[in-house]
Amino acid sequence: MNKTMQEMQKEVDTYISQFKEGYFSPLAMTARMTEELGELAREVNHYYGEKPKKSTEKEQTIEEELGDLFFVLLCFANSLNISMEKSFDLVMKKFNTRDKDRWTRIEEGEEQ
Q1: Which domains are present in the chain?
Q2: 72: nearest Cα among 3, 23, 4
Q3: Spatial separation of the C-alpha atoms in residues 40 and 20, rounded to whole Å
Q4: For a surface tag, which of 31, 79, 88, 112 has the fewest beta carbons within 10 Å of its beta carbon?
Q5: Known PANTHER family for this protein (predicted)?
Q6: If you ran DSSP here, which 8-state letter would residue 110 be given?
Q7: CA–CA distance, 59 with 4 (Å, rounded to integer)
Q8: Would you say the C-alpha torsion 93, 95, 101, 105 has a positive or negative sign?
């Protein structure tokens, strides 16, 4: 079953709402996102970069690290009462207007 962004935000809110601590402050949330982004970068570097994983390091996946980052992003949005659907629509409008001619388009019939 595919979930909407609104459903995902609600699921995260339901999860966080069961704890007295609730959402972290915006500053702490930014630190958490930075931490998760660093973990994602480390995994990407292990898979695609020049730095192999140590034999003693736990096996993580890029998918798992993206999920961690996404969870914290949804927490951040919820804590500030921001709809990620609206945020997404705003950024796509920007890309489809301001940046519409920024990149070289693939012509019809042209291979990628």
Answers
A1: 5-98 (1.10.287.1080)
A2: 23
A3: 29
A4: 112
A5: NUCLEOTIDE PYROPHOSPHOHYDROLASE (PTHR42692)
A6: -
A7: 30
A8: negative
